[in-house]
Specification:
342 residues; single chain; Nucleotidyltransferase, domain 5; 56% helix; two-stranded antiparallel sheet; 3 domains; alpha/beta
Length: 342
Amino acid sequence: MTDVNILAIDLAKHSFQVCATTADGVVVFNRKYTRGKLQQLLTDHPSCLVAMEACATSHHWGREAMAHGHEVKLIPPIYVKPFVKRSKNDANDAAAIATAVRQPDMRFVVVKDQEQQAQAVLFRTHQTFTRQRSQLMVTLRGHLGEHGVIVAQGNAALMAFEEKLETDPGMVPDLVLEAARLYYHHVQELNQSITTLERQMAEMAKRSDIARLIRIMPGIGPINAAAFLAFAPPMESFRRGRDFAAWLGLVPKQLSTGGRTKLGRVSKMGQADLRRLLIIGATGCIRWANQKGIDPDSWLGKLLERKPRKMAAVALANKMARALWAMVTKKQEYRGGLVVYA
C-alpha cells in the first residue's frame, strides 16, 4: 500500500472498481469495492492522487477524498476512452483512468463544492418545470383541437381560454372538460413553482458579486447568471476568453488534415445549458437591436448582411463568452461594443 501513488476509481452506484498504481504506472491491485469499503479506503489510505471520470457523482466523491487529504483530479470521459484496452469492463475502465491521469497534457475538471452543485439543482429544476409546463400546454391544445376548438397562439391566450370553457360547457364533451381542468390545475401549480424558483435565482444573483457584474451585459438575465454560477468553472483556469468560448462549444469543429483547414459547425462541446442560454441571450440582443437600428458598418451589422440571423446569434454568443471571461478575470464592468447602433 505504501507504493501506491494513484487510486483510479471507476464510479458507480454500489460497486466501485479501484485500480491502484505506482507513480510509474505499475498496477499494484485492481479490485472491486462496495460503497462502504471505498469510503474506508479513502479514510485509511495515505495521501495520494485520486483520479476519476467527471460524472454526476464524481464531485461528491472528490470532496470526500479531499477531506481526507488526497489530491483529486477529474477527467472528462471523452479523454479516458482512448486508453481503454480492448473489451470495455470495470477493470479496464479503471486502468484507463490510471493511464489517462498520468498524461502530461491532460485536461481536468475542477471539483465543485456543495453550494455550486445546489445552484445547479435549482437551475435544472427550473428548466424541468418549464419543459413540463410546455408539454402540458401543447398537449392540451392538441386535445382541444381534436374537438374543433382552436385557441389563439400564446400561453396567455390558452390560460385565458379556461374561463370560456367553463362558461360554455357544451363546447366540448364533459370528459374533455374534466381533463382540461386537470391540465389547467397542473399548469397553474407549475407556474407558481417556476415563479418561486426564478425569485430564488434572482436573490442568489443579487448576493453574488460575479452575478451582479455580468448582469450588466445585455443578454445576461438572472437565469443566465444563475447558470453561469452553477456550471462555469473558475475563469482563471482559462488562459484567454477564446479558450472559454471553445470550452462552451461556440467555435467551429475542425475537420482539417494534410495542412488543409476545414471548419464545420459549432462543436457543441462543454456545458450545453450555458451555451444554449448565451445563444438565446444573443438572439434577444439582435432582435432588440434591430428595433433600434444596428449600425451597418459595425461588426454585427456586416455579419447580418452576409449570414443568417441564427448563425450571427452564435457568433455574438461567442463574443459574449469572451467578454464574460474578461469581465470576471479582470473585475471590469461591461464597456459595450457588442452591438453598435446607427
